[in-house]
Amino acid sequence: MAKIRSEHAGGFYHFYPKLATVVTVQAGEKRNALAVAWNCPLSRQPPIYGVSISPQRFSHGLILEAKEFVVNFLPIEARKLIAAVGRTSGREFDKFEQFGIEVEQPLKLASPILKEAYAAYECELLEHRTWGDHDWFVGRIVAVHQEEGAFTSEGLIAFEQITPALYLGGDFYLEMEKKAIHRIGREEALQSQC
Amino acid sequence: MAKIRSEHAGGFYHFYPKLATVVTVQAGEKRNALAVAWNCPLSRQPPIYGVSISPQRFSHGLILEAKEFVVNFLPIEARKLIAAVGRTSGREFDKFEQFGIEVEQPLKLASPILKEAYAAYECELLEHRTWGDHDWFVGRIVAVHQEEGAFTSEGLIAFEQITPALYLGGDFYLEMEKKAIHRIGREEALQSQC
User: Fold this and answer.
1) ipTM of the assembly?
2) What are phi and psi of B122, to 5 degrees?
3) Which of B152, B128, B29 is nearest to A11 (CA)?
4) Do the Cβ atoms of B172 and A179 come within 8 Å?
């Protein structure tokens, strides 16, 4: 199809939808929660995860201090929580108190797990690295939390139970529905004529 | 809700669905296409993008040689193409010929743009870094291709035109439907009680 070509990234929303996670961190008495859509697995064995956070955010300094963070995966029903922690700063107030956010105990580290999360990764900070206007925090996953029934026996997200929160950019969140799940095995893939 | 806690990542599919992109690369006479679900923006200004690729893949060496790559964003209709380039190796055959994959000319670099892509980023390699069993390739975006009508005037993906290909892990691809788009402004977010 006809494509528009440009040397400029424009709105830079082409890579959405992306899971709208919330990163939590506890550093001594200080704690915070921040919406982070720019998140990605980096290794399966050992399990390693990356999150991108602006140096301007309060959580940035807390993660460097705590040397740990938690990635919380949330359902679309939690979209106001995600927007609330995304649009405010932990320098103004304690977001957990302000927005009535309930937490659960971590297994290995100190950063809180969000009660509304259907899954969460506890990560020990391995490295952070500046790329342009964001810093990339890389963490080794040392514990995993997952809601009972949120994933199938094959490990796939159970859409009958969970509708993941997907971010579209700006103030926009996508509530999706499953139309179909397609299984494409190697044999079928090999016969492909595109 | 009740959560299961573990020190092990298990199936390590908790972070899906993720956009199922195809990374293309041209290094001299050699070229390849590879399915890459582990992809993420890293900076808005300048625009920087990361992709995670196993050292075992043919594309890994080609990207190091070419010092560039292209990230192609594809609709769910291209799921067999994605599975085909994901389940085969460019060492066996030229995937473009084998699967009849049509390409378009890049604007700034040498790596091909997939005709079926609704958007694509041309990236100059800035750095690669080993994390566990994958390498993280970071590229500066020097050109953007986007299909006419694929994005709204606000830059959001136009679901009336495009259903993005979402990967779920294993051999599974999600065909989604838009149920609703929620706009949550700062004011509404601030009134949140979760």
Assistant:
1) 0.97
2) -85, 125
3) B152
4) no
